[in-house]
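Fig. S4 source data, part A: sequence.
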Amino acid sequence: MDYKYIEQLLENYWQGETTLQEESILRNFFSQDDVPAEFMKYKPLFVYEQEKEDILDEEFDSRILEMIGEEEPKAKIVTLTSRLMPLFKAAAVVAIVITLVNAAQAPWNYGWDNPQDEYAKFQQQQQQADSVNKLNPVQAENIGDSATAAKPESHLVE
């Protein structure tokens, strides 16, 4: 049998130049049981519409969920805590930023002291400490005597 007309229709089909009637002819040809071997590779393309089922019906979701073993999704219970969690996180971030800004700002609040002035204050404090350490021996004895006089001699009483 000569299939030149079918070959010509297929060529026009691949070029996108077929009419609806010509496509119907191709579908009818490929829906037959005795399709030549050279055209068998095109058969699934043309018989698809005849074989397809209406698989996306109203029960599609429940069937798919049944196949994978899950229940249909239920509404999520939203608590007040979970609802306010983004607000809590934002408040924590603001608190951290404020703390860091205050910590970084502290040196500027007190100002930078002149190192020469600070050294002069240190020298003055050292001189005061040295003057306290330079007590004459009589004063040191008096301090020692007053410390022993303040203690009652409790070991003598028996």
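Fig. S4 source data, part B ends here. The first helix runs from residue 4 to 15.
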